[in-house]
Structure formats: C-alpha cells, structure tokens
C-alpha cells in the first residue's frame, strides 16, 4: 500500500472536503444544534452564561459559530461551517502525524480516519467537537515537535494548543495526559525537553482553571447536574463496541482488528497506546466521578490513535504476504462506515424539522400553535420565524389550536397540554403521529 506520490494524501482530503460541502445542509438542525444557535443569538453575556450551565461545554466553539452566523446568516449550512472546516483541517494534521509514526500509506490512513462515523458525524453538526479534535491532533503533533527540537518556541506552541483545546472541549485533556504519561518513561527525551513539555502543558491546563471554576459554581448554583446520572449499564462491553466507531458493531470490530494488528508495527507505539487507552477509559472514569451520563461522542478523541493503528495493521498484513487480510478488513470497515455515514448525512436526528414544515403548512389565520413543553416553542420559531405571531395566548383564545408535542416532551407534559385544551376544544385530526405528535383542535 505504498503511495505512488508523496502528495497522494491530498486526494482523500480534497474528496472529503467536497463531500462534506455537498451534504452539509441536507438534514435540518436538531435539538442540540438549535440550543446552541438559539441562545447564541442573544447577548454575549447571555451566551456565556448558557455555556457555563451546559456541562462539559467550553466557549470557543460557540464564539466561532456566532461570528460565522453573524456574518453569513442563520441556516443549517452556515451554522455547520466551523465544524466542517475544523474536520477538514484535522485531516491535514492527521496526515502530518502519520509520518511521525512510520505510516507510509498516508492516503489510506487518512481515508480510514475520515470515514470513522464518529468523526464524520461531528463534521456535519453545528457543535464544537470537531474543533476540539483538531486541537487534540495539533497538540499531539506539537508534542512530537517539541521532543525533536527541544526549543522554548516549540514548547510555547504546544502549551497554547493545549489551552485552545481545553477552551474548545475539555476532553482534549485526555490525549494530553496520555502524552505526558508516555513522556515519563521515554528515555530518548532529555530532562530539559521533558521539563519544557511538562511546563508548557501545565501552563495550558492552568489557563483553563478560571473557566472551570466559574462553570462549576454556575452548575452548583443552578442544580443542573442533578438532572443527570451515571450507571455502569451505560458502558457494558457491547455498548462500548457498538459506540466506539459511531458506526455499529461491524464497523467498530473491523477498526479494532486492524488496530490490534497494527500497534506493534508503529513507531512511537507506546505513545499511541497510552493516548488511546486514556482517551477510551478517561471519559468513563470522569462520568462515574461527576455522575454524568456516558455518550458516544466522548470516545471521539481516541479515533486518531485507532486510525493510526488500523493503518499500521493493513500495512503489516501487506508486507507479510497477507494482502488479502488487509483488503478484507478495509472492505468491511469502509462498507460499514459508508452505510453509517450516509445515514448521518441524510437522515434527520429528530422530528423538529418535519414538524416545523407541517406547522407552516397547516396554520391558518384563525389558528394558533401550542407546544409541549412550552419552552420548546423557541426551536419551532427558529426554524420557522413566521410562526412567531401565531403562538397561542394563555389560555388559548383562537378558534383553532394546533398542539405540537415536541419529540423530547415527556408524557406528563403532553398530558398537561391535552388536559388544558380538552376543556374548551375537541380533537379534529391528528396531523402527525409518533415521537413528535401534532394534533388539530377545534373550539367546541
């Protein structure tokens, strides 16, 4: 799998950039994206307050998105531009990392990394995870550069990347810890260089402390963390295998088989192993300590290490005369990843977009819209601003009420709205059923 040209890596990155650009706006915004955007339109102080109340959030992705939306307007495509650009830039940094670990086929390795569904998902979502992944990759590359050069300037860049990473996504600290654990036992690195790396990383981490303290105080005052809980049932081996790649059991298994075969081939393999181990185990331990629910996105920062190992495994099989094994694993992985990536790009994650279209088509001059829960009306108004003048008064006075049950409404919230409307209205039709129900009520 040796590349014919040194710049062959440009081909998968350019193809990926074209693909992301083509599919970026296909699906409507879903709840998590809209929460970030709706509050991002308020004052800067209100935005920062909401970020503080969002567990695990950091301000830089919100500020970057706000700047782009202010410049080009609010739309699914525009809101996702920062995430897409960070993912594309991350591919270039990953390709640069490949040479540091002895990967000759950088094009194939980069294609594997980009195809990982967990990575692909956050290239298409208006959230900050791809920005965090870009910073984690940059920190990894700069760590190796400090080891090679041993200069204060290189160390300063590394420390800055650690700080920017934390202000993009706090879980970027895990790959940094993996690198520092590697540094402890690395005999090829001089004491002065080790002190530079440790000092730079410490300064980067300390720069994040003020934000961490403010966020923790805000969360404690609001009681937000009481809404979440951790259970070891969330992280059973089967769950972790399914979620590891973001593409299901087959995709994850193929990635792991390639990674297991390739680790021994890599240069600096102890560094790769420690980064992967800390990035996989760290989120689970953190969730257990702070009693926060486990989510697959927390495993994102292990994706580069797994992709490097898998690429090494494919090269190892090729060189050992078992080319068929390498191509078989590639075929299985890419096929499973393609199915998952297609769904991520084309299938809406919830029903807000579909419901908003129904509302826009069904509401007439004598109608108003009522939402359960009431605070979710903001999301329908964001998707369809023309609905703002048609929100029901309390209690409703219109001749017709279109009752919208948000996809995330509880049964109690639905029952509360139904009981309110049943006093003066009767059901005329169910316009949409399922997780997000829309019911047409007419006054008796």
How does this model look, in words?
By secondary structure, the protein is mainly α. The chain folds into 2 domains: 10-346, no CATH class; 352-443. Helix content is 63%, strand content 6%. The chain has 21 helices and 4 strands. It has helices at residues 10-23, 31-40, 44-52, 59-72, 76-79, 81-100, 106-115, 117-123, 129-149, 152-166, 173-184, 191-206, 209-222, 237-244, 249-262, 269-290, 303-319, 323-346, 352-362, 377-383, 411-422; strands spanning 367-372, 400-405, 425-432, 438-443. Strands 1-2-4-3 form a 4-stranded mixed sheet, with helices on both faces. The longest helix is centred in the C-terminal third of the chain and has 24 residues, at 323-346. It is globular. The chain starts with 9 loop residues before the first helix and ends with a strand.
Key words describing this protein structure:
2 domains, mainly alpha, 4 strands, 444 residues, single chain, four-stranded mixed sheet
Count of folded domains? 2
- By secondary-structure content and strand pairing, the structural class works out as mainly alpha
Helix content: 55-70%
Report the mean per-residue pLDDT as an integer.
92
* Gross morphology: globular
The overall strand count is 4
Low-pLDDT segments, ≥5 res: none
Largest sheet, strands/sense/barrel: 4 strands, mixed
* H/I helix tally: 21
The N- and C-terminal alpha carbons lie at a distance of 73 Å
Give the SSE order as H and E letters: HHHHHHHHHHHHHHHHHHHEHEHEE
C-alpha-based Rg, rounded: 24 Å
The share of residues in extended strands comes to: 5-15%
| Strand order in the sheet with the most strands | 1-2-4-3
């Amino acid at each position: 799998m040796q590349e014919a040209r040194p710049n062959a890596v440009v081909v998968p990155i350019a193809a990926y950039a074209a693909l992301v650009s083509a599919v970026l706006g296909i699906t409507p915004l879903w709840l998590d994206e809209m929460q970030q955007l709706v509050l991002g339109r308020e004052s800067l102080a209100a935005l920062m307050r909401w970020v503080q109340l969002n567990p695990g959030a950091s301000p830089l992705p919100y500020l970057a998105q706000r700047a782009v939306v202010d410049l080009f307007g609010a739309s699914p495509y525009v809101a996702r531009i920062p995430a897409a650009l960070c993912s594309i830039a991350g591919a270039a940094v990953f390709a640069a990392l490949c040479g540091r670990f002895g990967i000759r086929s950088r094009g194939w390795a980069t294609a594997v990394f980009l195809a990982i569904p967990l990575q692909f998902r956050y290239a298409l979502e208006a959230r900050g995870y791809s920005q965090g992944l870009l910073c984690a990759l940059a920190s990894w590359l700069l760590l190796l550069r400090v080891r090679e050069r041993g200069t204060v300037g290189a160390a300063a860049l590394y420390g800055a990347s650690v700080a920017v990473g934390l202000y993009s996504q706090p879980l970027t600290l895990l790959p940094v810890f993996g690198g520092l654990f590697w540094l402890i036992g690395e005999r090829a690195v001089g004491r002065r260089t080790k002190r530079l790396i440790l000092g730079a990383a410490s300064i980067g981490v300390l720069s994040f402390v003020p934000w961490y303290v403010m966020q923790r105080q805000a969360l404690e005052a609001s009681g937000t963390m009481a809404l979440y809980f951790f259970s070891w049932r969330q992280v059973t081996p089967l769950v972790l295998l399914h979620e590891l790649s973001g593409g299901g059991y087959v995709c994850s298994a193929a990635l792991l088989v390639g990674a297991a075969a390739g680790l021994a081939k890599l240069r600096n393999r102890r560094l790769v192993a420690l980064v992967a181990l800390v990035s996989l185990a760290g989120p689970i331990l953190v969730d257990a300590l702070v009693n926060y629910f486990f989510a697959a996105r927390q495993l994102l920062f292990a994706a580069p290490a797994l992709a490097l190992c898998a690429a090494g495994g494919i090269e190892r099989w090729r060189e050992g005369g078992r080319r068929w094994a390498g191509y078989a694993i590639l075929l299985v992985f890419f096929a499973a990843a393609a199915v998952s990536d297609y769904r991520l790009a084309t299938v809406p994650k919830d029903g807000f977009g579909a419901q908003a279209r129904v509302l826009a088509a069904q509401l007439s001059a004598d109608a108003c819209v009522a939402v359960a829960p009431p605070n979710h009306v903001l999301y329908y108004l964001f998707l369809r601003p023309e609905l703002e003048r048609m929100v029901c008064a309390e209690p409703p006075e219109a001749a017709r009420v279109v009752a919208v049950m948000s996809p995330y409404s509880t049964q109690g919230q639905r029952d509360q709205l139904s009981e309110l409307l049943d006093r003066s209205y009767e059901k005329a039709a169910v316009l949409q059923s399922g997780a997000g129900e829309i019911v047409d009520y007419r006054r008796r």
